[in-house]
Amino acid sequence: MVICDVNKLIKYWSQGSDLDFKAAQEIIHKTQQYVNVLFMLHLSLEKALKAVYVYKFQDHAPYTHNLIQLATKLELDIEDRITFSEINEFNLRCRYPDDKYEIYKKATKTSTMKYFLYTQDLRKWILQKLK
What we know:
Number of strands: 0
CATH architecture: Up-down Bundle
CATH class: Mainly Alpha
Shape: globular
Number of helices: 6
């Protein structure tokens, strides 16, 4: 892969992560659509991890939405694997109707804010790997 392509991919994934996190931020502060916030938080972490993957391996990121799998490939030490695992589940639970209704019960303002703050810190830590 050509270096400029790698830089373009890194920019693509990191900017996507920023945009998704900003969308989550707007949604959480302007609405009560907490399931949408959780989904956007997952996307922002996924894209941050993919940016680091491209940076580290100088190749396309794997076709996966699994945050734990991406973090493992990057050999990232994530202290709170339980919370990370919970965020990983937002990708599926927010997409598919059977699970979607169950997550609406769990997606309270308090729980969503907890995940929002956790994701905010985790994204910063992940994206620092690009420097």
